[in-house]
Each structure stands twice: as C-alpha cells, then as structure tokens.
C-alpha cells in the first residue's frame, strides 16, 4: 500500500504511532499486500490485453484522453510491482529488515532498500494521481475544443515534474540532516505528509468540479449539434456522467481509508501515551484501516480499468498484429470520404456551408467519442445520429 508511514518507518527513532501499525502482524500485512497487488496486477494486464473476437474501429489518430488512461494503468501496474517486491523482501528476509531499527548501524543496505522501495511506491502512485487530474482537465478542454495530442507533452512535464519534485522534497525534509535524526519532531514529518497527500486531495476536491462542468458542456454540445436533444443523445450524456462517477467512486473507495488512518495516527501522536486504555478504540480503528489500506490501495489499478473500459473478457488474443486502439471509436472523416462522396452539382455556396457544418459536427462527434472511449453502444449511437452517417 502507499502511505507516508513507509518512509517514516525507515527512521530508527520512528514515532510511536508508526511503530504501532508497522509492528502489527507484519507477516499478515505483507501477505495481504502481496495477494491484493498480485490479483490487481494480473487482472489489470488481462483487461488491457487485446481480446479475441474484437473488431476495433479505426480512427485517424489517438486522443490525449486515451493516452492518459493508459498511463494511469501503467502507473498502477508499476506501483503494484513495487508493493509485491517490497513485501516479498520483508517476508523472506526478516533479519535484513530488522537492521533498519539499529541506530548508527554500519550496514546501510537495509535503510537504502527501505527508502528506495518506499519512494518508488510513493512516486508511481503520486504520478497516477497527477495523471488522473490531467484526465479531468483534458476532458474539459476536449469539449471546449482546446486540447489535442500536442497537450500531452505539457501533461508529461507537469505530471512527472511535480511527482518527482514533491517526492524528493518530502523525503529530503523528512531525512534531514541524516536518517538517524529524522522524525525527531513534527517539523520533519508534516512537510513529508503534505507533499504525499497534496495530489490525492487535489483529485478528491478538484476532479468532481471539472467532471461536473464537462458533463454540462457535453449536454450543450449534444443539444447544439442538430438543435434537438434526442433520447439517444440524452442517454449518451448520462453514460459519460456515469463514467466520471465510476472513476471518482473507485478513487474514494481506494483512498478514503488512507485519510482516515492518517487522521487517527496523527491524533495518537498528539497523546502523551498511545497505550492508554481510553485510546483502545482509536488504536483498533487505526489498525483496521491499516489492513484495509493494504487491500484497497493495490486494487485501484484493476478497478480503474473497469471504470474506464468495463469488463473486457477473458479471451486474450496473443497473436501479434498491428491493431488500432480499441477505445478510439469514431472515424467520421473516413466515413464521409469513402462512403458518402460529396455531390458535384451543388451550388458552391451551399456546398461550402454544408462542408463547414459537417466539419463542426465531426469535431463535436470526435470530442464526445473521446469521453465515451471503450463504450461500444455509445459510439454506435453517436455514429448513427451524426449528420455524416445520415448522408447529409
């Protein structure tokens, strides 16, 4: 699981709250992390692999939204691999891990492994949070026709730059001036926790606002495309809204336990003695949410693929061939050019006005199809309702 407690545990003089959760059934906890991360890893890869019987439609170019969704899944896969590796070492070499608690020890490898593995997990999941924020921004810009594949470069710079900067800054402040003197006070820990949870809280607060505004903009686009709001278009808008709701639901389910656990542990840190009897219920709640984090954090990768694409099935097609991205569903320009050639006997002014209207409709259809990627029924309805499909 991804928690700033992983980094604070690398301090030999760690606080009592961190000691409480990290020493609670470590074998069981590591086993839970390995099992959850392994299941999520296998199912996520299964979801992303091409399936037999699929006939993906062609599209001239990939969208930035589809690229972002794939990058989110890649971050989750790499984060799960980090959890599996870290928990496996903890289970397989308990003596090696025990050397982390030795103050002024001569063996630096246990501490190096502790810090390196914790940073790997934090960095990948933080990058996933930033990519999810970029997806919300990109969805809004797409319907406003202000985004495209060129913006993906800016998203890369923002996501990886901020993820690396916040991770390095938080770790540097936590371990300053050395690993043996970290966690001597909250002035070391608080900046580290802020840099860890800042992107998580950003997604939790800002993404619903952006998704809501995107849904409103989609409704306006659908109404303005032909001047009417049919049942198919209303259903398409509802499916896009449901897609955003599923994304936020998965995020809340997987990470709300982290916020609850951290709140409880900070409260325990403020107490003179966390082992007092009046604090028993709080200690129990902290330990329960700690185990829940080990289950839900790694499962984010698989649950996100369900929210993005739905269940894609078990039948994997392992034959190598060049395939179009399956969630790219619209090819209005290809249909317009090959299936419905423009008549040559129209007057020029009528032809130009039709061409402009068709171009605007294509842009609207492509923008909406990017938001409903992976939803075949939505794409089919969108294609049938487009003026080009009707032979306009």
UniProtKB/TrEMBL annotation:
Transmembrane portions of the chain: 28-46, 67-85, 119-141, 153-178, 190-211, 244-267, 287-311
UniProt membrane topology term: Multi-pass membrane protein
Entry-linked InterPro entries: GPR143
Similarity annotation: Belongs to the G-protein coupled receptor OA family.
General function of this protein: Receptor for tyrosine, L-DOPA and dopamine. After binding to L-DOPA, stimulates Ca(2+) influx into the cytoplasm, increases secretion of the neurotrophic factor SERPINF1 and relocalizes beta arrestin at the plasma membrane; this ligand-dependent signaling occurs through a G(q)-mediated pathway in melanocytic cells. Its activity is mediated by G proteins which activate the phosphoinositide signaling pathway. Also plays a role as an intracellular G protein-coupled receptor involved in melanosome biogenesis, organization and transport.
Subcellular location(s) of the protein: Apical cell membrane; Lysosome membrane; Melanosome membrane
Pfam families: Ocular_alb (PF02101)
Organism: Sapayoa aenigma (broad-billed sapayoa)
Disordered: annotated segments: 371-392
GO biological process, one term: melanosome organization
Subunit annotation: Interacts with heterotrimeric G(i) proteins. Interacts with ARRB1 and ARRB2. Interacts with MLANA.
Any one Gene Ontology cellular component term annotated for this protein: apical plasma membrane
Entry's Gene Ontology molecular function annotations: dopamine binding; L-DOPA binding; L-DOPA receptor activity; L-tyrosine binding
Lineage: Eukaryota, Metazoa, Chordata, Craniata, Vertebrata
UniProt keyword Membrane, yes or no: yes
Keywords linked to the UniProt accession: Cell membrane, G-protein coupled receptor, Glycoprotein, Lysosome, Membrane, Receptor, Transducer, Transmembrane, Transmembrane helix
Name the UniProt record assigns to this protein: G-protein coupled receptor 143
């Amino acid at each position: 699981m991804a928690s700033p407690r992983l980094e604070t545990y690398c301090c030999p003089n760690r606080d009592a709250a961190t000691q409480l959760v990290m020493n609670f059934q470590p074998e069981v906890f590591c086993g839970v992390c390995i099992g959850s991360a392994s299941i999520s890893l296998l199912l996520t890869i299964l979801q992303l692999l091409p399936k037999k019987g699929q006939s993906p439609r062609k599209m001239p170019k990939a969208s930035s939204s589809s690229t972002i969704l794939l990058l989110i899944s890649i971050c989750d896969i790499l984060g799960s691999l980090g959890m599996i590796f870290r928990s496996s070492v903890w289970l397989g070499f308990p003596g090696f891990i025990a050397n982390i608690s030795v103050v002024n020890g001569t063996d630096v490898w246990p501490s190096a492994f502790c810090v390196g593995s914790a940073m790997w997990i934090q960095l990948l999941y933080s990058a996933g949070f930033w990519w999810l924020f970029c997806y919300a921004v990109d969805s809004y810009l797409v319907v406003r026709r202000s985004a495209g594949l060129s913006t993906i470069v800016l998203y890369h710079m923002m996501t990886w730059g901020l993820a690396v900067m916040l991770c390095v800054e938080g770790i540097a402040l936590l371990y300053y001036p050395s690993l043996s003197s970290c966690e001597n006070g909250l002035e070391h820990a608080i900046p580290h926790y802020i840099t860890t949870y800042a992107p998580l809280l950003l997604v939790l607060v800002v993404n619903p606002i952006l998704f809501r505004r995107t849904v409103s903009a989609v409704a306006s686009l659908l109404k303005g495309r032909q001047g009417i709001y049919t049942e198919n278009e209303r259903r398409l808008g509802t499916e896009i809204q449901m897609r955003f709701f599923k994304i936020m639901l998965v995020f809340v389910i997987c990470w709300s336990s982290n916020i609850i656990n951290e709140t409880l542990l900070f409260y325990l840190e403020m107490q003179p003695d966390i082992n007092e009897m009046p604090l028993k219920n709080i200690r129990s709640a902290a330990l329960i949410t700690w185990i829940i984090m080990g289950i839900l954090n790694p499962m984010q990768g698989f649950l996100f693929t369900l929210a993005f694409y739905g269940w894609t099935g078990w039948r994997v097609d392992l034959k190598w061939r060049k395939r179009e991205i399956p969630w790219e569903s619209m090819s209005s320009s290809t249909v317009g050019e090959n299936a419905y050639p423009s008549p040559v006997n129209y007057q020029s002014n009528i032809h130009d006005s039709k061409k402009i209207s068709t171009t605007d409709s294509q842009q609207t259809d492509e923008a909406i199809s990017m938001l409903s990627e992976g939803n075949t029924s939505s794409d089919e309805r969108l294609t049938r309702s487009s003026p080009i499909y009707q032979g306009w």
